[in-house]
Batch of 2 targets.
Target 1
Amino acid sequence: MIKHTPLWWETAPQPKSYTGNPLPTQTDVVVVGGGFTGTSAALQLAKKGANVTLLEAKTIGYEASSRNGGQALSCLHYTLTEIVEQHGKTLAGEMFLAAVEAANTVERIVKEENVECDYTRCGSVEAASKPAHFERFKREQELLKEVANFDVQIIPKSEQRSELGTDAYHGVMVNPRGGSVQPAKFVRGMAEAAVRAGAHIHEGVRVQNIERVQGSMDGIKFKVHTEAGVIEAKDVIVAANAWVGKLIPQFRLKVFPGESYVIATEPLNDELAQTLIPHNRVAYDTRHILAYYRLSPEKRMTWGGELTLRGVSPQRNINALQKGMVKIFPELVNTKLDYFWNGTLALTLDETAHAGQTSDGIWYSMAYVGHGVTLATYLGQQMANEVLGLSSNNPFANLNIPFIPPYRENAWFVNVGKLWYRVLDMLG
Ligand SMILES: Cc1cc2nc3c(=O)[nH]c(=O)nc-3n(C[C@H](O)[C@H](O)[C@H](O)COP(=O)(O)OP(=O)(O)OC[C@H]3O[C@@H](n4cnc5c(N)ncnc54)[C@H](O)[C@@H]3O)c2cc1C
């Protein structure tokens, strides 16, 4: 029987609990949300001596941060070629290098804080789903060298089995700086490190609204209203990702939730695992509706993405994922599926991360489009630096975010968008 629960929850130690302590009435900084963004921000703030209170509506990492593919990527959702077209060479280069630094930041935190999270700097593989996409790799390789002095390796179809045991692709591109983590262990480990550094974490506390106060003494600029009481704070960082619009109204019609689904097989034998992903890298393909996959530490093929739709039965999504997996790796046709789960990402129509400060002075960081393991960790840290007045690097500030159609709880247009992307994938 397939278990409907994230594999990462089952293979992590029992999480620490942060409940039962009364809320403070005042603090320097309130961080709203306990995923990668919030725990990383809290860790940095506490290490630099700030009095920080992290409020999490559920439990640490409960949403995307413990449910993702665990791909710690050293790149962005768009290719550098696309980012140059959108933002010009200078800003595009800064964004790409921030992504590279984001991957370094994950490695640094894991080492400095001794976070046990099966971290490896294994590299990532992008697989060309069409011949034209391999041609794109060649241009991308040149541009990465020119703009960011960054080296990737491209491998033609005839030799791609050295990276992925399949003939279904048209060549691959290897980014040596990517890595992998067990995400539930990583986010919980960052929370524990933040607490060791002096941060206060309160689980099960939902922030209802953030009130800007004028003319207050002691530098207090905000009243943070929660179900459990009000906290006065000098600064607030909203790290609520897909739910940012509930707290910062200007994002209500700009940032929307999208679901992604994942299956994990039974553990593969060593020989098969070695054949399918010889260097144990994390992998994804070049389609709009892409598949992302990797071997878990116990060598389960962990496969996410595909044309999985919100609202259809779990079994239909399981079937779609399994079909996509078997198309690439036919050897897995009879391999048992042990886990299925889903998670909610924050999306914007420009499919770019956004971090900065509102005109009211609230800090935010969100919408990493499938690259949040590294980017959320990095930008959470950068937002903390900004609050503290330390030097920071944030090329994702001040970008316009396009408006989306109105919706209530579920963004109905996500399924429409996925189907449209599927048509584009079929065309070329
Ligand atoms: C299935 C799936 C697969 C993915 N795979 C990858 C991958 O392989 N690599 C990669 O880099 N990225 C991946 N991502 C994306 C990545 O997981 C996210 O970008 C990242 O986790 C975002 O972190 P976050 O802290 O900003 O948000 P979240 O982890 O979503 O955390 C936000 C937190 O805020 C809390 N919150 C919300 N509202 C309130 C409130 N009012 N009061 C208090 N707390 C509140 C929530 O409970 C939640 O815990 C994937 C995402 C999904 C869903």
Target 2
Amino acid sequence: MNERLKNLFNVEKFEIKNYMEKMVIKNLESQIEKRDDICKCERCLLDIIAYALNHLPAKYVVTDKGSIYTRLEELEVQLNADITREVFKAIELVKKNKRHE
Ligand SMILES: [Zn+2]
């Protein structure tokens, strides 16, 4: 592969990110806040995030490195019901199939 293309994920100024990751984490945060029946260790939280992300569409955006996402609130409102549902399903699944002792 062309060197320039290969290094695009590593350029200084810009970055490409899946904005869905950020929305899932935010949603997860608000859902687990109210629950004390689930394990909140890093492994379980990552399992929950992976499951939810595999069931939601990726939403890639290009931003100036380090800058805050802007103008995506509309997208967030649109997708919020889907995200809440998938995160909830993920929490229940990981609760029943914990990957550690
Ligand atoms: Zn755990």
